[in-house]
Design goal:
CATH topology of the largest domain: Multidrug efflux transporter AcrB transmembrane fold
Mean pLDDT: 84
Structural class: alpha+beta
CATH class of the largest domain: Mainly Alpha
CATH architecture of the largest domain: Up-down Bundle
Distance between the termini: 47 Å
Strand content: 15-25%
CATH superfamily of the largest domain: Multidrug efflux transporter AcrB transmembrane domain
Number of domains: 2
Largest sheet: 4 strands, antiparallel
Order of helices and strands: HEEEEEEHEEEEHEEHEHHEHHH
Number of strands: 14
Shape: elongated
Strand order of the largest sheet: 11-12-2-13
Helix content: 40-55%
C-alpha cells in the first residue's frame, strides 16, 4: 500500500520527463542515422512487391475450346471449364494427390489439359498461389510453384536487382521462407507495367523465368503519395487543435496545454519506436496515431476531472498533494482499461500478419506511452504551469 494513498508524481517529475526526453532523443538520432523512416509504398511513390523464391514443379497447358481457369486454394487445385454446356469444376485435393507428380497425373485426366512434370517429388501442400492466379489456361504454359527449403539470401536478391537503381529489399518472415519485400522508386517516364516488367526480367535472369512467385504487387503514383502525406499531417494537426480547444473550454488553459503536450509526446514516442524498430510507416501508422490520441486523451480527462474535484474539496491540501492523490485514485481504472485493450490486440500482434499485425504492434506501443504520459507527464506539467501562473499572478498584484 502506498504511503498516504498517493503516488509522488510531482516529486518524480524530473525522472519521468528525463526518461521521456532520452527516449525521444534516441528516436531522433535513429531517424538521422537510418536516413528517415521505413516508409510504406503508400507514402513513398513507386512499386512495392512481395515475392517468394520458389521452384516450378509443374507446367500446365490447355488445347481445347472451353474457357478453362486454374485456381489454387489452401488445400486443393481447382480447374473450372465453361462452355455452351455449362460449367464443370474439377477439384484436386492435396490429401488425395500428395505430390506434384500425383497432381500432374490428375490434371492430365482433365480433357484438353496437359501437365509437364519438372520436379515430381514436391509436396502438394507447398503449392503457392501468387499474383496472376486464378490463371486462364491456354497454349502458353502456366507454371505452378512450390515452396522449398532453399537458401537464397537477401544479398543475392539485392545483387539480382542492382541494375534497377533505387531498389530496397527486406526479408519477410523467417529466413527459410525465402520471401522478400521489394520497393522500386519511380523513374522518369515509367509506369506500373514497365516497373513490374523490369523486376520480373531481373529476377528471371537470376532465378529462372518461373523460379519465383509474385505474392503481392502495389503501385503508388507521386501525386497520390504527396496528397496522402499532406492529408495525414493535416488530420493529426486538426485533431490536436480541436482537443486543445475542448480541454481549454472544459477545464482551463493549464489543463489544455498539459494535455496537448502529453499527446504530442505520445505521437513522438510512437514515431520513436517505429524508427528504432524499423517498422513500416504507412497509412496504418496514421490510424494508430489518431486512435492513441483519442485513447490517451480519455485517460488524461479522467485524471484531470479527479484533480479538479479533489482540488475543490480539499483546497487546504495544496495542488501538489491533490495531483498525487488523484493519480493514485485513477490508477486502477487506467490500468484495467489499458490492460484489457492490450490483451485484445496482443493476439493480433503475435499471430496476424501484414498491416493488421503492424497496427496492433503500434497500438501496443501507443497504449504504454499513453499510460505513461497521462499518469506521469501531464499531471506534473499541470503542476509546473499552475505554479508558474500563480507566481505571475502574485507578481502582478505586487506591482
Amino acid at each position: 500500500m502506498l504511503k498516504n494513498d498517493t503516488i509522488p508524481v510531482v516529486k518524480l517529475r524530473w525522472i519521468t520527463w528525463g526518461l521521456a526526453i532520452i527516449l525521444l532523443a534516441a528516436g531522433a538520432i535513429s531517424i538521422v542515422l537510418f536516413g528517415g523512416f521505413n516508409l510504406g509504398v503508400d507514402f513513398e511513390s513507386g512499386l512495392s512487391q512481395r515475392i517468394q523464391i520458389a521452384p516450378t514443379g509443374l507446367e500446365v497447358t490447355y488445347d481445347g475450346d472451353l474457357d478453362t481457369v486454374l485456381s489454387i486454394s489452401a488445400n486443393a487445385v481447382s480447374v473450372e471449364q465453361r462452355g455452351e454446356g455449362g460449367v464443370a469444376t474439377k477439384t484436386l485435393r492435396f490429401s488425395e494427390y500428395p505430390t506434384s507428380d500425383d497432381l500432374a497425373t490428375a490434371l492430365d485426366g482433365i480433357e484438353g489439359v496437359s501437365a509437364r512434370v519438372i520436379d515430381g517429388s514436391l509436396k502438394s501442400d507447398d503449392l503457392i498461389s501468387g499474383y496472376g492466379f486464378p490463371a486462364t489456361l491456354g497454349g502458353k504454359a502456366v507454371g505452378l510453384n512450390f515452396r522449398s527449403s532453399g537458401s537464397t539470401s537477401i544479398e543475392e536478391l539485392r545483387s539480382a536487382l542492382s541494375d534497377l537503381g533505387n531498389v530496397r529489399v527486406q526479408t519477410v518472415g523467417g529466413s527459410d521462407s525465402q520471401t522478400f519485400q521489394i520497393r522500386l522508386g519511380i523513374k522518369e517516364g515509367s509506369s506500373q507495367a514497365s516497373l513490374e516488367a523490369e523486376v520480373a526480367s531481373s529476377l528471371g535472369n537470376a532465378f529462372g523465368k518461373d523460379g519465383f512467385v509474385i505474392l503481392q504487387s502495389d503501385y503508388i503514383g507521386p501525386k497520390f503519395s504527396a496528397t496522402l502525406i499532406s492529408s495525414s499531417i493535416l488530420a493529426i494537426a486538426v485533431a490536436l487543435a480541436l482537443i486543445l480547444v475542448y480541454v481549454w473550454i472544459r477545464f482551463r488553459f493549464a489543463y489544455a496545454v498539459s494535455a496537448i503536450v502529453a499527446l504530442i509526446h505520445d505521437v513522438l514516442m510512437m514515431l520513436t519506436f517505429i524508427s528504432l524498430l524499423r517498422l513500416e510507416f504507412s497509412s496504418t501508422t496514421i490510424a494508430a496515431l489518431l486512435t492513441i490520441i483519442g485513447y490517451s486523451l480519455n485517460n488524461a480527462i479522467v485524471i484531470f476531472d479527479r484533480i479538479r474535484e479533489n482540488t475543490s474539496l480539499n483546497a487546504s491540501m495544496g495542488l501538489r498533494s491533490n495531483i498525487d492523490r488523484s493519480v493514485r485514485q485513477s490508477l486502477s481504472r487506467t490500468l484495467m482499461s489499458s490492460l484489457t485493450t492490450l490483451l485484445a490486440i496482443l493476439p493480433l500482434a503475435i499471430f496476424a500478419s501484414g498491416d493488421i499485425q503492424l497496427f496492433a504492434i503500434k497500438m501496443g506501443i501507443g497504449l504504454v506511452s499513453g499510460v505513461y504520459s497521462s499518469n506521469l507527464l501531464a499531471p506534473s506539467l499541470l503542476y509546473w504551469i499552475s505554479k508558474a501562473q500563480k507566481t505571475v499572478q502574485i507578481e502582478d498584484k505586487a506591482e
